[in-house]
Hints:
Elements: H1 3-17, H2 27-36, H3 42-62, E1 68-73, H4 76-90, E2 96-100, H5 102-108, H6 125-157, H7 161-172, E3 181-184, H8 192-205, E4 209-213, E5 229-230, H9 233-249, E6 256-261, E7 268-269, H10 281-286, E8 291-294, E9 306-308, E10 311-315, E11 323-324, H11 330-343, E12 348-351, H12 358-369, E13 377-380, H13 387-401, H14 423-433, H15 435-443, E14 445-450, H16 453-469, H17 475-489, H18 496-499, H19 502-513
Helix pairs in contact: 1-2, 2-6, 4-6, 6-7, 6-8, 8-9, 11-12, 12-15, 13-14, 16-17
Amino acid sequence: MTAYHDTLRATRALTDEHGSSWDAIDPEYVARMRLQNRFRTGLEIAQYTADIMRRDMAEYDADSSAYTQSLGVWHGFIGQQKLISIKKHLKSTKGRYLYLSGWMVAALRSEFGPLPDQSMHEKTAVPALIEELYTFLRQADTRELDLLFTQLDRARAAGDETAVEFIQSQIDAFETHVVPIIADIDAGFGNPEATYLLAKKMIEAGACAIQIENQVSDEKQCGHQDGKVTVPHEDFIAKINAVRYAFLELGIDNGIIVARTDSLGAGLTQKLAVTQRPGDLGDQYNSYLDVEEISADDLANGDVVIKRGGRLLRPKRLPSNLYRFRAGTGEARCVLDCITALQHGADLLWIETEKPHVAQIAGMVDEIRAVIPDAKLVYNNSPSFNWTLNFRQQVYDALVEQGADVSAYVRDELMSPEYDDTELGRLADERIRSFQKDASARAGIFHHLITLPTYHTAALSTDDLAKGYFGDEGMLAYVSGVQRREIREGIATVKHQNMAGSDIGDNHKEYFAGDAALKAGGAHNTMNQFG
């Protein structure tokens, strides 16, 4: 028996059990509605997607070419259309996730209006977006299966048994649009208890993977901005524990924690670490502080000092009451952060870098893997990087090292369009194209994401349309740039009524009211113009 027939058999037995009082309930309609609503709770989604991620992580451990990817999305519709596109063009969602970006929640989803990425937005906006994303992905399942059921009914009405068998096989092999979401909890939005409570809400909404960073919660900055302040390891470990307890309480025993370190770009700490003995974790954290050696006679009112190796050391404290790390210690601090996080319950790492450079990332990962061989990264292919300039300069430097003639290029001006069709430009583009594959093979990157690409694509596509529509092109700007492309490229939103659920609603009306149902999709529906 097929999954479709198995579900139908179960619902038929249920309706038979209730006798004539359920005569109006069609067991096939019930079976269809059950298949269209595979996931009934967010926790079911969290468990299903956690299992997927764990399998993908094991597959990557065996073969680094099996890396995974995601795009950051800020609305359920955007996430839905991304998954519909993936299924249409690539035929499978395997290895493709969604990323929920705290930056985009702040910039686009806060009731305060656009905010910087500094944990100022409502914390409830994060689980709300997770729930919204999965609502839209589940609706994509409902819509696609509804289209198949409609095709099945037509094939049956035509007596085409071959078509009936083929469509039923498509229904049985249906792949859900529901995929893992890696969700950004920022620095935890408060103390460990606050982190635990928010993590629970995120998991209940469907999150199987939560990313948390080692910045001070009330001083949190975007990873690509200045002024980042980190916390001692024991503070961060407490929040990792809080997230793990949230997963375990809710029964998602294999939930994934992504520990992010901002130490590469963070030159400040809010407080000194507690240390009990030389060389312990707190002592290692404090060893990176910018200090000056003093004697007891040098102590001034309110001074804070550290005793290390028999010496008195005074950390350099800023007027903000923050302490500064020594310049050049960022990579070493990142390595220590990552090893410590993995040794205390994290599953994946995130190292926020200032540029996309495989060798730089690999250098840190090699040190981490010397201690923890299966260490894996989630990496931000950030729009904050100028990818074109970065890679053209990398190629320029490589050519110089090889002794090649670079007199035709000016290194500081390589962003210029005049270099687009040059050998250097083509070599740089090839490095960009293969960056994810190369970095996964060499630098231990299991998951590549772009944090806020759909923020940029929304702005760019709106600019294209507004420029033409309000200019000389008028309506042609929409027709040629949007609708005609939708029709010819098979973009499902051209039938926007269907995408919004009109046909699903019509079928439900028929389920509920039979021939008395008043449907919207009749002959006079203008959506029929699109075939």
